[in-house]
């Protein structure tokens, strides 16, 4: 296992601290977003702090205004998604997702059938300027004067991907979860679409959409991440969900024409062709500037998972960019369920950053469920992976 240290304490009894970190410029300026929760997906107290010396010292935490908004006609949450910087052209991108509950309170969920009564839309803010709605179909833009416009709410519904990737010509790639249905409650039919930004025109364009049938993943494809491989191929990996006939897997699609089209979706495997199990949990790419290798962080289990769990152990591994597979002999265990941990502990709530000075990979995890008496009372831990 990688060495770990407690980075931030739990904020209160039965309250989890959730955390993300990213660079917000080409220099050493870091931004952290903190939020808390005591129940699933209901986040409060969004705060932000900035370090201008690569995390050595930090400004005070400041409350992020207008993240949650309850209006007479419904609720809105504007989820901050962190920053990405294009090292080729120097452009910066901030991700944002707007979740809208027409006529309802925020954080109203239907966990039984996942037919949630909200709709999601994804935006990017380029170089700190106006936000841009990412469209994969025809539909109106967001209107602040009419935020619950039914036509807006039923078109271009999308959940944002984990990260962004950049080609050498400055093309930005950002995968989204899209939907087959105009029904804003259709959250069991998620597919993937790859958005790309033309560096000459600045226009964001969609690829085709790809889906898997429900016998392969019961909740569609979720939380995609993207990487540009050494030969220029675009790789998109998404999480799936187990079914009575298919154990939990991770799934991937490729684009060999600069993101214009995505291939059919296939199961991600080891480089020797063998299969592995993975629960319905987040994952992340990180290309090392130290050695050029593409790393992948994900939960890989010995036995078939059931739904979202178990979400341990967590591994970091190299991607074989020729075979488009996980190098089996490269697996490094980041963390696992320890003897003192309950069975419900989760090692999936992480944020990853390559340190721009040391080129080490920093991994921050909220180890939800580690306290046997207070499931939600959770701090943030930091792990360090030093690429060879």
Task: Name the descriptors.
single chain, 388 residues, mainly beta, 5-stranded antiparallel beta sheet, 1 helix
Question: Mind explaining what this structure looks like?
Answer:
- 1% of the residues lie in helices and 40% in strands.
- It is an all-beta fold and 388 residues long.
- A hairpin with a 2-residue loop joins strand 6 and strand 7.
- The longest helix has 5 residues, at 150-154.
- It is globular and about 55 Å long.
- It starts with a strand and ends with a strand.
- Biggest β-sheet strands, sense, barrel: 5 strands, antiparallel
Tell me how many strands there are: 27
Our measurement of the CA-to-CA distance between the termini, rounded to an integer number of angstroms, reads 16 Å
Order of helices and strands: EEEEEEEEEEHEEEEEEEEEEEEEEEEE
State the helicity in percent bands. Answer: under 10%
Strand content: 35-45%
Cα gyration radius (Å): 20 Å
Quaternary structure annotation: single chain
Structural class: mainly beta
What is the 3D form? globular
| Sequence of strands across the biggest β-sheet | 6-7-8-9-10
Helix count, per DSSP?
A: 1
Unreliable stretches? 183-187
Question: Can you give the mean pLDDT?
Answer: 95
Please provide a brief summary of the model:
It contains 1 helix and 27 strands.
Task: Map the helices and strands.
Elements lengths: L3 E5 L7 E8 L6 E8 L6 E8 L10 E2 L4 E4 L2 E12 L6 E11 L16 E8 L4 E3 L16 H5 L4 E2 L4 E2 L5 E8 L10 E8 L6 E7 L11 E7 L5 E6 L10 E6 L10 E2 L16 E4 L6 E6 L14 E7 L4 E2 L5 E4 L14 E5 L6 E6 L13 E6 L3
Antiparallel strand pairs: 1-27, 2-3, 3-4, 4-5, 6-7, 7-8, 8-9, 9-10, 11-13, 12-13, 13-14, 14-15, 16-17, 17-18, 18-19, 20-21, 21-22, 22-23, 22-24, 25-26, 26-27
């Amino acid at each position: 296992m990688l060495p770990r240290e407690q980075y931030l304490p739990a904020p209160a009894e039965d309250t989890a601290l959730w955390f993300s970190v990213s660079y917000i410029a080409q220099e050493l300026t870091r931004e952290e977003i903190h939020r808390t929760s005591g129940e699933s997906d209901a986040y409060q107290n969004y705060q932000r702090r900035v370090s201008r010396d690569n995390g050595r010292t930090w400004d005070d935490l400041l409350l992020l205004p207008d993240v949650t908004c309850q209006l007479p006609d419904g609720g809105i949450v504007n989820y901050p998604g962190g920053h990405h910087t294009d090292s080729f052209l120097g452009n910066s991108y901030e991700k944002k997702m707007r979740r809208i509950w027409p006529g309802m309170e925020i954080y109203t969920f239907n966990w039984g059938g996942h037919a949630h009564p909200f709709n999601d839309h994804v935006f990017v803010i380029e170089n700190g300027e106006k936000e841009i709605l990412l469209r994969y179909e025809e539909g109106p833009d967001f209107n602040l004067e009419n935020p619950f416009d039914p036509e807006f709410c039923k078109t271009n519904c999308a959940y944002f991907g984990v990260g962004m990737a950049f080609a050498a010509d400055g093309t930005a790639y950002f995968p989204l979860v899209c939907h087959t249905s105009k029904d804003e409650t259709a959250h069991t039919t998620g597919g993937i679409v790859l958005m790309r930004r033309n560096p000459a025109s600045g226009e964001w364009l969609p690829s085709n959409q790809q889906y898997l049938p429900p016998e392969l993943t019961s909740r569609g494809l979720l939380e995609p991440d993207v990487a540009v491989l050494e030969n220029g191929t675009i790789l998109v990996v998404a999480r799936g969900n187990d079914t009575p006939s298919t154990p939990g897997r991770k799934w991937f699609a490729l684009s060999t024409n600069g993101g214009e089209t995505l291939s059919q979706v296939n199961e991600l495997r080891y480089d020797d062709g063998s299969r592995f199990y993975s629960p319905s949990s987040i994952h992340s790419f990180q290309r090392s500037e130290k050695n050029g290798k593409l790393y992948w962080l994900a939960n890989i289990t010995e036995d078939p998972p059931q739904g979202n769990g178990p979400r341990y152990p967590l591994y970091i591994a190299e991607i074989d960019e020729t075979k488009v597979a996980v190098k089996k002999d490269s697996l490094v265990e980041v963390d696992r369920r320890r003897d003192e941990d309950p069975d419900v502990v989760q090692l999936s709530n992480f944020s990853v950053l390559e340190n721009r000075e040391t080129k080490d990979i920093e991994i921050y995890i909220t180890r939800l469920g580690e306290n046997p008496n207070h499931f939600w009372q959770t701090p943030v831990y930091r792990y360090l992976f030093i690429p060879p």
